[in-house]
Amino acid sequence: MDATGGNLVSSVLREYGDATRASLFEYLPTAEPRRYLYDLVGDYPRRGGRAFRPSLCIATARAFGTPLEMALRTAVSIELLHNAMLIHDDIEDESEQRRGRPTMHVNEGVPIAINVGDTLSLLAMRPLIDNRETLGPYLSLRILEETERMARESAEGQALELGWRRDNVTDVVEADYLLMVLKKTCWYSFIQPCRIGALVGGRDPSDLSGFDRFGYFLGAAFQIQDDVLNLVGDRKKYGKEIGGDIFEGKRTLILAHFFKSCSDAEKQRLKVFFGKPRAQRLPREAAWILDALRGHGSIDYARQVASHFAQTAVTEFEGAYQDASGSDDLEFLRQLLDYMVNRDV
Amino acid sequence: MDATGGNLVSSVLREYGDATRASLFEYLPTAEPRRYLYDLVGDYPRRGGRAFRPSLCIATARAFGTPLEMALRTAVSIELLHNAMLIHDDIEDESEQRRGRPTMHVNEGVPIAINVGDTLSLLAMRPLIDNRETLGPYLSLRILEETERMARESAEGQALELGWRRDNVTDVVEADYLLMVLKKTCWYSFIQPCRIGALVGGRDPSDLSGFDRFGYFLGAAFQIQDDVLNLVGDRKKYGKEIGGDIFEGKRTLILAHFFKSCSDAEKQRLKVFFGKPRAQRLPREAAWILDALRGHGSIDYARQVASHFAQTAVTEFEGAYQDASGSDDLEFLRQLLDYMVNRDV
């Protein structure tokens, strides 16, 4: 078992990822202006990544009997938009590192980074327009529509998260958190890749709600696990700074549980910590918060919810893919799902 | 003659602008999340504006015999994208005022403003997808393609302008400036509204180059005049702070002429001024620059170029619209053109 699950998972992610990247780079202009734009649009894509979302799309299309080539442009668009959103997210979250290197705005300044992100979003439209050659105009427009929906769901989720942080909101309840995750994580990483993969695979547009449920439960399980790992994970396996979410003031299910069960004094202490500029938040304060979260059982509670959601995701998977016949891709999806919901939590 | 030309120009801009705005507001969600997103997406559109670009699109479609209703969604998309780009431009240019009020990022902070701009860009896709109901899927995809092209040309122009400013470039020559204006101003405000208006009006996609030329000469004439008015205009008529471009360090044709003809000492003095943070640039330094630009004949030179381009735009207009038969809209376009190239320079 390596960092991305079993051998089948690794090899399929590599295969679909390589195909997506090869086609993606053909969509990046090499024209002028290079220095301030087109040398930069390829920066994040060149840094790698597991190509998890495009693989989910391709595997779903193939599971329903459609060859990879028919899904490739759609997969490219998913990955381009992902990179576009990372650039803007990094500015919005004031992140300094992305995939082990300085973020775009750290390297180039905020104005040029915003413009590079905008350009990548536009470039993501091109493979979707080119889809008309292989998928016909109606399905192409439908996939554009799904893409607009997904990106807008993400923006809605991002708005909630940014707003809570900016206004130092400490009354985020579980339902608020789950709505934010549905919009920000589930639509983006799970629901839309599966839905448009299924559309390319010939599924009827009226018959996609199984993917919504599957994507929701899987996405929520994944995100809650990710939030738990951020606090108690093994840094080497997890790949990010442990406790980084506390320093960032990220509102998680763990915090929602804590806000509900802590004393007024504890809540006030947290509010003061989150109210300070990030650079002034001290490690000993973060350590106190981590202890308090443990003490109130907030981390254990999140673990339980993640586990419950993961079990439901498995059930929903079987329903959503019941008419699928591509056994290799189904097996890949099953193993991927298994890996995602059974990481070291 | 009022601020937007003659009576016909004013009344048609009002009519097409009102129709566009009415439809535009139907495309703005009123759902949650309101406070951090959907209350904000309508902010810039509600501030008004002359709706010049959508009117150009509608008038072109009508001039070629297609009713307003057929062009309306395309016009809405132009205006939505315009507002999206204004929000990001205001961040990138560090502008504090927009249409007489504080800019989005001044009110809401940069992270939320980026996200609101992204959302408006996405919303701009929706009327273009809805076009399939009236224009059919092929033409709808074609207009999406034209829109992606225009927005990318704008981003390329913006990249040049941002890069020149960030790196304090003082060897911008006339050809550099004209390329930047072609991309940033002409495509965005003139070429694309005319091209997609003509497409809606039933023109053949292979027969649009006349609009490229018309839009280029008109756009360049307009922008160069705007740069001149920024330095020597009547503040009341011009509507912006006189000399603001100097404080912003904006690279103009006037500066390109100056860079070519000034002494090394003068160039150095300008470079030092532009190298300082904006808040440290002093009025007396700006006054010296204005005198130097006048002394080298740079402002007069720009006036001459604008006038030459304006004359060519008039010729190109007659060529591009030679098969048009909608006499009222042609007359509107002619008067609009006349107003735009004969402002008080």
Task: Please give a structural write-up.
Two copies of one chain form a homodimer. Chain A is mainly alpha-helical and 345 residues long. Chain A has one domain (7-341): Farnesyl Diphosphate Synthase (Orthogonal Bundle). Chain A contains 17 helices and two strands. Chain A has helices at 7-26, 34-38, 43-46, 52-63, 68-92, 104-108, 110-130, 132-166, 174-200, 209-232, 235-238, 244-248, 253-261, 264-275, 283-295, 298-320, 327-341, and strands at 97-98, 101-102. The first copy, chain A, has a two-stranded antiparallel ribbon. In chain A, a hairpin with a 2-residue loop joins strand 1 and strand 2. Chains A and B meet through helix 2, helix 5, helix 7 and helix 8 of A and helix 2, helix 5, helix 7, helix 8 and helix 9 of B.
Number of discrete domains of chain A: 1
Major sheet summary line of chain A: 2 strands, antiparallel
- Which CATH C-level class of chain A is it? Mainly Alpha
Strand order of the largest sheet of chain A: 1-2
What is the structure about, briefly put?
Helix content of chain A is 75%, strand content 1%. The first copy, chain A, is mainly α and 345 residues long. The first copy, chain A, has a single domain (7-341), classed as Farnesyl Diphosphate Synthase.
